[in-house]
Each structure stands twice: as structure tokens, then as C-alpha cells.
Amino acid sequence: MGILSGYTVLDCSIAMAGPFAAQRLGDLGADVIKIEPVTGEWQRHAPAGGVTGNEVNVSFLSLNRNKRSLAVDLKSDEGRKIIRRLVKTADVFIQNYRAGVAGRLGVDYETLSAINPGLIYVSMTGFGEDGPYAKRPGQDLLLQAISGAMMSTGRAGEPPQASGQYIVDAVTAYTAFEGALAALLHRERTGEGQKVEVNMLDAITTIQMQELSVFTVGHKPQTRSAEPHAHVYIRSPYGTFATTDGYIALAMPQFEAMAKALDEPRLADLDEMKAGWEDRDDVFALTREAIGKFSTADALERLNAHGIWAGPVYTYADLVADPQIAHNGTFVEYDHATEGRVKTPGFPIRFSRTPSEVRYGAPRVGEHTNEVLTAAGFSDDEIVEMAKSGAIKSLDA
């Protein structure tokens, strides 16, 4: 049994950030009930990479394991009745609706906390529940842009570069996950429930703690280089460099050691700190020229032999085949009812006494509706009538 076994989470969230946060709670053993429309949550119909799957697309599959699906129409009286009953015994409620939607559906904090004062209510938004940007769409790329993070990447004079991952969604998910755990700890000590507000703008801003402090405290502006330097606040060379057969990543080497490793005496003649900051483009170009003479394996062997931080630039295929990944058990595999054998990233935290496990694959729409409602005290006749009225969807109906 997982460390959160015995806790119940009602997941009313959509897309990535909310479902990912709820999945992490499920991975730790919580009973996560995914409350979704009878037509299925939005992510079921928006597959990343166009990978639709047999019945459950990969996007949904990756963000909703260890959950049970309750398909219910929250716009119906019967649907709201179901939520009110479930909330009575729930521990955590997660939603990331647009501003005002939770209130219209009757699942706002004031309404639900009146039913269960011990409830941990996690509200996730793009920019905050109020304020001048409250109604703006909380989309990952737009948040990368407004947070200032993009302006630290790419070449000077060219458009800033976005992350190749849904980084804001992921950071927001982990922020909400952390907030839910902290609030549960507070409740264990005091018995008090509370509202936990998380927004994407604050999440991506605060993760730039070091960079923004350099700006606000050290008063050093973001200055991008003409060369593709990887970080505005780290001396050159710092970034990725082409070899004769691929790429390597190189981080903050000592110039004298690098000169020896790459047979490039011009590097040893440079003042490491002065040139590394003031002549970043020249240093980067010289390093690129030196590394470009070697194969990836040869360059890494030479650099590592001199204690220089350097490593390969992997594709996903390389990552999945890596021996350390295999040793760590980073990926998990399980059988899914409609998608067959599934291999996905697993659990980043290891507990010696309460290990995480895959108890459920991502559910089909309404797969557990009858199960959840029966446990909540609804009779078979009530469930049948709600299914007939369209208030719920059940695979058993």
C-alpha cells in the first residue's frame, strides 16, 4: 500500500497540470477518482504527437494512471448531488477550471468546504484567481514567454527559444502536488482543511529563483549572446557543440584543462573569468571549432579525462536504452485493457516501506462509475435512473 493509502482525491482537472498533480497523489497510494464529463475529459480528445491509441490516447494514458473514472454531468442536478456526497468523505479536491466556472458548477471552495470543513481544496489557474490577467488562458508556451524564461535562451537578435517540453505545466503540477501534501500535513496536526491556490505564472517564476535574484539583487540584466550560449548568467563556454558525428553538452570548463583535452592552446591563453563573461561569443566559437574536430566518443573521453563536465546529447531512444535508466527502474511497464503493453516514466521518489506501484492504468470513460457510486451509498436503482437521464456514464450500464 502506498504512503497515501486511505486518502481520497477528487480530480476535476483537465489537460496536463491538474491531472499530473493528481496522478502523483495516486502514485503514492491515494484513491484518485477522476471526475470527468460523460463525453470524457478534454485530454482524451487532444492527443500529443497525434498518437491516438486504440481507445485511450497516449496523452491521457500518461497523465491518468492510478485513477478511477467517474463520468458525470456536473451541469445536471443529479451530477451535483453526486459530487456533494463524495465530498463528504474526500480528503483532496483538485480543479483547474477557468475563472468563475467552479462557482457556476457548485464546486467552489466555499460550497464544498461547508460540506466538509476538513477538505483540502486545490485550485489551479493560469495567472491567479483574480487580478488583471485572471481571464487569460493559462497555456504553457504563453507562460514561458511572459515569465521571462524565454529571453534567457537563443541568440541575440533572434527570437527567443521555447523549452522543448511542457515545462510550465510540469512545474505547476509539482507545485500543486507539494501544496496538497503540505496542507494534508497541516490537517493531520490541526484537523483544519484549507484552500490551496496555485497558478502557472507564479510556479514558473519562482522556479527561476536563482536567475531572477541575480537580476533583482545583483542588478545584472539578461544579455543574450550572438552564439547559442545556453544560459545568460553562466560564463562561456556553456551549451551544446557539434562533433563529427553528433553533439555533446559542455558546462563551465577550466580553460587550461580544456586546452589540453582538445589540443587547442589558444584556449589556455584566455583569462577564464574575464573572457568567459566579456567575450562569450569568441570563447564559444573557439570551443566549437576545437570540439568539431573530434567524434562524440573521442571528445567525451578527452574532456572527461581532464575532469571537465561534458556529456552526450541523447535522443529519447538513447535515453530509454541507457544503462543507468535501466538500473534505476525509471520506466514502468504494465498491461492496459485497450492499449496493450504500456511503457512510461514511473516514480521519481522511492520509499523504503511504502513503494509506489501502478494499480490502475488510465481509465476508460466511466469505467468505475458504478463502483464509485455504490461505495458512496447510491442504490442500484438510482444508478440506473441517472444513467438513463444522461447524468452519468457507466461502462456497466
From TrEMBL:
EC nos: 2.8.3.16
UniProt-listed Gene3D superfamilies: Crotonobetainyl-coa:carnitine coa-transferase, domain 1, formyl-coa transferase, domain 3
Signal peptide: none
PANTHER family recorded: BLL6097 PROTEIN (PTHR48207:SF4), SUCCINATE--HYDROXYMETHYLGLUTARATE COA-TRANSFERASE (PTHR48207)
InterPro entries named among the record's database cross-references: CoA-transferase_III_domain, CoA-Trfase_fam_III, CoA-Trfase_III_dom3_sf, CoA-Trfase_III_dom_1_sf
UniProt name for this protein: Formyl-coenzyme A transferase
One Gene Ontology MF term: formyl-CoA transferase activity
Gene: frc_10
Keywords: Plasmid, Transferase
Top-rank lineage group of the source organism: Bacteria
